[in-house]
Every structure is written in C-alpha cells, then in structure tokens.
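Target chain:
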Amino acid sequence: MPLTYRTVYLHDIVADMWMLTYLHRCAIAKILDKKDHGRAWMDFARRIGVEKLIPAFEIQPSPTLNLLEYFEDHNGTVDDLKGHFLGMKSPDLADVVEKAVSVIF
C-alpha cells in the first residue's frame, strides 16, 4: 500500500500550547501568582474546571505554571487560554499570550 501525504496546516493542530515557551509561561505566572494577593490563579483554576484541585496546586511554588501544564495536558488551546484571561478581565495576560503567538507567525 503506497504512503499518502497530507498537508497539515498550523490552524489544524488543536493542541497548540507549544507556542507558549517556558519564558512566556513564567511571565504569565509572575503576574497571575501575585495578582489579587496571590489568589487570581484560583480564578483561572475555576475557569478551567479544576476547582477541586486547588489545594493541590496551592502548595506548589508556582500554581500557575502547574495549571498551565494541566491545561496543556487536557487539550487546552492558546485561544481558549486567551479567552479565559479576557474573561478574568486580565488583558495584560491575554497580551502575553498574543505576543507569544505573534512571534511564531
């Protein structure tokens, strides 16, 4: 049976969190871990549906970095992430995501 090839476009890839480098994730964590007296990351956790896991994330050095990893592992997308940040009224975080993606394209 001959091999067939298909062109895959970047927008066809669902799991696109790879576009956020570790430095971008650290920039997000630096803001989110400290915002609202260190409680803003909990709002993010609730938005992605892991409210019951907040105690586990709370004991981590950076809850946000761990939440971003969880979000990526569960097929979260950059657009979803940006939407969550805008829903949290955090355009500064959405800008970090936008800048990360604009570097790729």
Q: What stands out?
A: The chain has a mean pLDDT of 88. The CA atoms of residues 34 and 40 lie 7 Å apart.
